[in-house]
Amino acid sequence: MPGTRTSYEGPIGGPAKSAATSIGWTLRLRRQSCATLSARRCGTRCGATPRSVGQSPRTGALSILKTALRFAVDAGYNISPVDRLPSELVGGVESSRDRVLTDEELRRLWQARSAHMPLLRFLILSGQRIGEAQRARSSHVHDDRWHIPKEHSKNHRAHWVALPRQALALLRGQDTSRALLFGTATDSGVQAWLRRWCERERISPAFRPHDLRRTCATRLNTLGVLPHVTEKALNHTRQGVMAVYNRADYEVERVEAMQRWADELDRILGHSAEVGEAQGITHELPSGPGNSARRTAGRLNP
């Protein structure tokens, strides 16, 4: 058949490619019309995404490989040879992290100087996932809400985030002439910088961007926010009976909770909600003609 693809080309490389080679397996899609799918679009079609934050490369590779092969089965392939392959055989079960930042660590991180700091400060304030925040655009922010499209969400459900005044002040400092509010959609640079920063600051154990989300959730509960409100604010997938019957949005409670956390963070940092130093609006542009205008151009309207 003209235009028919005979092999899957998805976001599989590195450990995943090695794993496929080691089991002596080559995927063939016979008589399946996939000619219109590029490598990236095929990955999107089958639901394969880069590994989750905190996931080991081996486990992430296995997850992507399984997703790609399930797509192949749906497309007509007989069986997936790795569908029942346990993660223990490719590197072990990952232990759950419990790292929560202390008040002192929050203060030290907030005062750090880096082009990554606006993003990291936003993660502290919002408690959302780094991958979702990095894909945020100015068009996703309406009034005091940040709307996360379902295609950007980990659980594939659209979500809105209540933005306290401190988070809104931070976003107004971002250059909205860029396609993405925080400039990049990959977390590798942020992860590497944060790891090096923890080493320089002699912070042990080191923390990761996802630990900022855990810190926000923990602090919300410490402030007396009810667990189900915290779960909804952070867009966690509900389990059991709650998932089936509880469809409440908790709008008022979520708005109040996020503002309460932002005010508590102000107390920890020792200042009130202000634009500038308090919100870490740093673009690290070199001095020179025209750069002062570029710092203030294209920002969110107050």
Q: How does this structure look, described?
A:
The structure is a single chain. This protein has 302 residues and is mainly alpha-helical. It has two domains: 76 residues, no CATH class; 194 residues, Intergrase catalytic core (hpI Integrase, Chain A), CATH 1.10.443. It is built from 13 helices and three strands. It is globular. The N terminus and C terminus are likely disordered.
Strand order of the largest sheet: 1-2-3
Strand content: under 5%
Domain unit count:
2
Please give the radius of gyration in angstroms: 22 Å
Known CATH architecture of the largest domain: Orthogonal Bundle
Mean pLDDT: 74
What is this structure, in a nutshell?
The chain has 302 residues and is mostly helical.
Describe the structure using short key phrases.
single chain, 302 residues, mainly alpha, hpI Integrase, Chain A, 13 helices, disordered N terminus
